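Weekly modeling sync, notes
Attendees: AB, CL, MP (scribe)

Item 1: holo prediction request
CL wants a bound-state model with adenine before deciding which constructs to order. AB pointed out that an apo prediction alone won't tell us much about the pocket. Agreed to run with the ligand included and paste results into these notes for async review.

Input as submitted:
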Amino acid sequence: MRVDVLTLFPEVFEPALQSSIPGIAARKGIVSYHLHNIRDYSLEKHHKVDDRPYGGGPGMVLRCEPAFRAYEAVRAMDERPGRLLLLTPQGRRFEQAVAREFASSPRLILLCGHYEGFDERIRVGLPAEEVSIGDYVLSGGEIAAMVIIDAVVRLLPGVLGHEESAQKDSFSEALLEHPQYTRPPEFRGMAVPEVLLSGNHGRIEDWRKAQAALRTQDRRVDLLTCLDEKQENG
Ligand code: ADE
């Protein structure tokens, strides 16, 4: 997969994309990251990228011309068209199913806004899908873009090494994770559940499924409703 990021702050991506799973994926050659500064595509003096909103009001708005020029130049850098994602709190909610959908694309181009927002013609004139990572307002799209890249890249075949970590059966995937333990068997009076030390894989699997269901019931009952609806709809 090829990932292009159009941003005013390319430097904030470097550590996140070089570390942990996203970094491993790049070193394995499964993904390549390409960071582009939108400012480089501004035709204005001092590479200005923002301006005051027409009609007045606080803050600055990302101008059309650097965004369009950056997108067009970057798109032409590779023949795979890919999907253009515009990070905004007004977009489609990003969740695991969307991550899986994006993971099947050979290329993602992420456009990060800043300031008070985008000129509306960026939304309308570019073939972009607007994506939000949740109902809160970040100072810019960069952190949202990193969230999406991380969630997508770990799903790519070969990245995790142990495929079942990312691709569990659809039932357990819809639930919260069961509790995990590692050595020692007892720590400050807290013991690891006996079943996990039993070596009986069938019992362990049953216990994990039951724990995942209990935990989900307890903390996120909305996920169970969602699962019921999916099963009813086949
Ligand atoms: N930019 C600002 N807030 C955002 C959010 N919640 N999701 C995606 N992009 C954003």
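Recorded for review: The two ends are 31 Å apart (CA to CA).
Action items: CL to compare against the apo run; MP to circulate these notes.
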